[in-house]
Amino acid sequence: MSRHIQMSGGLFACMMCIFSYTAAILLLPSALFKLAGQSAWVAVVLGAAAGGLIGLFAVYVALRNPRMSAAQSARYLMGKWLGGAVGLLYAGFFIWIYALSLRQIVDFVQIMLLPGTPNWVIAALMAIVVLYGVWEGIEVTARVAFQALVAITVAVLALPMLVYPEIRATQVEPFLWRGMPAVYDATWLVVPWFGESMIALTFVQYLKNRRLAYRWFLVGLGMATFLLTLLVALGTLVFGPDLPGRFVFPVYMVIQQISVARFIERIEVVLIMVWLSGMFIKLSMCQYASAEAISHAFGLGTHRWPAVVMAVVGVLITEMFKGTLDAFHLTTSPVYVLTTIAIEVGIPLVLLIASLLRSASQRKESPHA
Amino acid sequence: MKSLQPVRDYLRWWRDPRATLLGGVLAGAEENSRKREQAALHFIDEAKSLPISPEPAQNWAVLQLMLGAAPDVVMREFTLGTGKLPAMLLFTDNMAKRTEVTAMLDSMMVRLRDEQFPTGAEPLEQYLKERSITGADVTPVKNLSDVTTKLLTGDVVLMAKGLQVAFRMPATGFEHRTPEEPAAEPVVRGPKEGFVETGAVNIALVRRRLHDPRLRVESFTIGKRSNTPVTMVYLAGVAWPEMVDEVRRRLKRINIDGVIESGYIEELIEDAPGSPFPLVKSTERPDVVAGELLEGRVAIITDGTPHALVVPTTFTSGMQASEDYYQKWPMASFTRMLRYLFLVVALLGPASFIAVTTYHQEMLPTQLLLSIMSAREGVPFPAMVEALMMEIAFEALREAGVRLPKPVGQAVSIVGALVIGEAAVQAGLVSPILVIVVAVTGIASFVIPMFPLALALRLLRFPMIILAGSFGFYGITLGLIAISIHLASLRSFGVPYMAPTMPATPTDFKDLFIRVPWWALVNRPKFMPVMNRKRQEPERNKPAPPDEQ
């Protein structure tokens, strides 16, 4: 399955960038503003650094096993049953992220664009398009990711200029006004979002030049951090330190302030299109990672049919949520944050330990090797 | 009906087990035309193994049987030289050039009548090469299948008594159109010459632009019944050998009864036949083919059509007109960017209008929204149905304009555009604003230089309208993502169709949305596998003021 797939470092960076910050744009800033006020951007930087460490650890583990995905190396290192179980945990984690992200899309589109359209229709339409992308292969998704990243970067960089008249520098508080403890509290919320970058366990194997894996990973994550930090800082500059924490979607509220020559107004729908293209990449990566893990855990020859099953499961999980607020409370609860971080660190850690044990036993068996 | 006795004599001479079988199918063929037809088909199936009899009359009888006594296949009997060697000259009327045939007959019957013609096959071939007017082009033919093929492609065939070989002499010269400006690819600046229906002329038109000994012309015959001459053209030392091999392999793989137009070949060699996007470029312009060959591509010229094929091709290649390289680069860049803008309009014009007016009215300034709403007042259809009706009517008018004779076509266009459009607006069936949207979209699709690419976009416009009418901009986004996935998955002879954007090769952006000056286009496109990357020496070509030179 992975033999013929090759991806350049640039495309890998594009995918990691979009994956790490697109979904976080909507839900995360509100909680950060609530906890850290205008220092939310500092929390983003710190949280991204901590989450990035998890990702770097995953890249290190992936590089130890040449050209193998997480589930493949788990099966290789730990055997059919234990390895299969780790593979299933990995697949389950990413189908969960898939469902959570899809739920964000469903709620947002239903509230802002298509009130009255049933949830499942919005979810199913996106799931079908994502499935088409995954069916065509990860190379195709990576190419679309480049296109999406260009659009997202242009949109985010243009945003400060478009909302420039609404920026009030006078409402900015002194730096770290609420103190570092508040920032630390907010940082914890950021870590799981960026820790999801341990999905690199699936994609590092496809890199053309694996020696540059760390560099391209850091480029992707660095871009994601910069873009998210910019958007969060913009929230403070436009609405001040307190108001953004009361919005469910503060970044969306910033976008709504766009007014150019009193003619180009309320163009948030165009920016939502750009955001949706990024979400498509995130969903595709999650679905691919889970489908590939299932395929390797069960020793199947293709990722395509598991992807169909994963799409159905993902949509069903999406339907189980009660709505955005439900997801919001869940993702900000300490139990969820700790569990997520535990899984994000745990899976690569288990793989590393298994790999070290295997190397040690091999050395013991052939001391002259 | 003509006697088949000479055919039986031929089979008796052949003395082969297959001759007995063919003799069997001749039973009753003299009286019954259907049986004669069946026998002819059997002989054609076996033609490759039918040798040339030393008795020309027998060969002629078999050929007549196979060709159904075609009146345009002409036979002239005469004797050669002082030895009075009986001979026969065969040609197809109007396929072979009359002046050439006359000159050949004159050469053999008059000019050389007092000469002693040699009697053996090889001496006679040598003699014809040295003395006859056709010179070195005389080539031996050893079976009746080849004789038939040569005759039907316009060559002249000479058969002489006592020889088990015939001689083919080229005389192809049927009437053909003179090169004129292609109607579908006109330019303001640039050559006004286009390909014609004759393959040989088309190759000459390319050679006229590339006087390079490395220009390779390789010929194939495709089509079991049409035997269409097809030529593969490439620049050795520039084109990637594996790509040339791949084109050759795909051409050789074709197994079809006839190739009437290059479209047949296009569909038989492209990578994704289900895609609406053109994965093989077709052009009527020799200058375009020459330019593509210089970038390492391979051209396929099919006899009988003015449309040459070029592989591999990319999406961006469809957005580049030949004139972009003839005009000054700022103007060329401007028009190219304009094309990309209108590409978006061509695909999303009506869909965006529907999405905005149906779901996202807040995007419009109040005054504009009020104008649109007042224009739509009284229209009994939803915007989606209205747009679909208008688009279908527009496509029908366009199709009618192409198919009808020119004077009538113009009348239909006027009736369609003015009378029906105006009447529909007056009757309140469609809103005037939608007429404007559809018209602008129509113009936008004609801005795209590659016609099949414009067709693909026109086709995709319909699902986009339905998606926009059903789900607003959410539907449009999903449609665009699906199109992006499809485009990113396409390859043309191994080259990604969306190169140089997906995957991105920034060095090729010099000739993408803009076209940088010629002196800055130092290398051939990076996404193209080529043998020689360098196109020019920039330090010699970059213009500089006289004091700096």
How would you portray this structure in words?
The complex is a heterodimer of chains A (369) and B (549). Chain A is globular, with a radius of gyration of 21 Å. Chain A has helices at 9-36, 40-64, 70-112, 119-136, 138-162, 180-195, 200-203, 213-239, 250-255, 268-297, 304-320, 324-332, 334-365, and strands at 259-260, 264-265. Chain A is built from 13 helices and two strands. Chain A has one domain: Hydantoin permease, CATH 1.10.4160.10. Chain B has 18 helices and twelve strands. Chain B has a five-stranded antiparallel β-sheet, sandwiched between helices. Chain B has a five-stranded antiparallel β-sheet with strand order 6-7-9-10-8, sandwiched between helices. With 549 residues, chain B is of the alpha+beta class. Chain B is 47% helix and 11% strand. The model of chain B has no long low-confidence stretch (mean pLDDT 88). Chain B folds into three domains: 5-169, no CATH class; 199-313, no CATH class; 344-496, no CATH class. In chain B, a hairpin with a 5-residue loop joins strand 6 (215-222) and strand 7 (228-235). The chains are: A mainly alpha (369), B alpha+beta (549). At the A-B interface, helix 4, helix 5 and helix 10 of A face helix 17 of B.
Helix coverage percent of residues of chain B?
Answer: 40-55%
How many helices of chain A? The count is: 13
Q: Give the uncertain stretches of chain B in residue-range form.
A: none
Low-confidence stretches of chain A: none
Note the main attributes of this structure.
heterodimer; A: 369 residues; mainly alpha; Hydantoin permease; two-stranded antiparallel ribbon; 13 helices; 2 strands; B: 549 residues; alpha+beta; 3 domains; five-stranded antiparallel β-sheet; 18 helices
Summarize the structure.
Chain A has 369 residues and is mostly helical. Chain A has helices at residues 9-36, 40-64, 70-112, 119-136, 138-162, 180-195, 200-203, 213-239, 250-255, 268-297, 304-320, 324-332, 334-365, and strands at residues 259-260, 264-265.
